[in-house]
Amino acid sequence: MKLWVLYRQRELGENVLAKVKALAREAADKLGRRPVIMEVCGTHTVALGRTGLRSLLADYLDLRSGPGCPVCVTAPEDIDYMLLLARQPDVVVATFGDMLRVPGSYGSLEQARAEGSQVQVCYSPREAVELAKSYPDKTVVFLGIGFETTAPAVALALKEAITEKLKNFLLYSAHKLVPPALSLLASDPELGLDGFILPGHVSAILGRQAFIFLAEKYNLPAAIAGFEPLDILGALMELLPLILRREAQVINAYPRVVTETGNQKAQKILEEIFSPHSANWRGLGIIPESGLKLKACYQDFEARERYPLEVRPSPPPAGCRCGAILKGLSLPPECPLFGRRCTPLTPVGPCMVSSEGSCAAYYRYSQNI
Ligand code: SF4
């Protein structure tokens, strides 16, 4: 039997769901409102929609989606920089497929490609290194996005480029770190969070201990969750009693993947190649120590060093509420453009572009909401 089948068992799921509902009702009675819980990871946002759990729990929990979609949190200025870069005749821009359709001030990378710019989709950072080898007369710039999960693979790709003595491979790092964003959200009284469902993938890299600060500093409970229905329900079974008892703890409800201290090798390669810096997040603004930039000794591979292009601050697409949605202040259907002018085929903002974006997930699974 495949392992995931165990976590999709219908009868068991229905039993646990009933228990979660009962706990949520009890917590709601105590709080005088539904408990507000944020799922921080885009994969959880999709899983909650795909499995129908978001709609099944809607009367019991106020589930908010957070800034866990890497495409969505990439700042407009980063996209504008890549658009300017794509116009350089000697440059090939390489990035993940979802980034191509995200609108910037001067269009999208997809449009730039249609107009003749060299923009290539890569399924892994290593492919960008291969591209650099096959375009020796061009400079390949890889736009690295994502969190602690994707950054190690980008760091390894850079090491490979160094080993291969490639001078035409550069990196534009728009990588983000999850714990500083959680600090910002945990301390925001407007959000009024009662707890977090923490991202299983990022936790696999960082370990449970990286999130203990939520309990110690912000007095908030949290549960690390996997992505199958019983994983999520199991995390809620752990989280809701904590909310009921007003007890702040960080529970690892995904122990088959997440350890206390995480993946040491991945952490080591991140420390070797990158250092934290203040990064600009779409919707959340500049958060101290929340991004990864190349260390000083790797500046020869830094795109901004070789191409110091000036990018002006860019306003969000007119009418788009991605900022408020990424912060958990709004839900996608509250955006007046949702499902009307903005659909996955005609996205106005990044939250509708990415498969992990909240708006795309709500749209795709709207019959389940
Ligand atoms: Fe932006 Fe579209 Fe989402 Fe509205 S529905 S917030 S326009 S991405």
From TrEMBL:
Belongs to the HypD family. One of its GO terms (biological process) is protein maturation. Pfam families: HypD. GO terms for molecular function: 4 iron, 4 sulfur cluster binding; carbon monoxide binding; iron ion binding. The keyword Transmembrane does not apply. InterPro entries: Hyd_form_HypD (IPR002780), HypD_1 (IPR042243), HypD_2_sf (IPR042244). This is Hydrogenase expression/formation protein HypD. The keyword Iron applies. Keywords: Iron, Metal-binding.
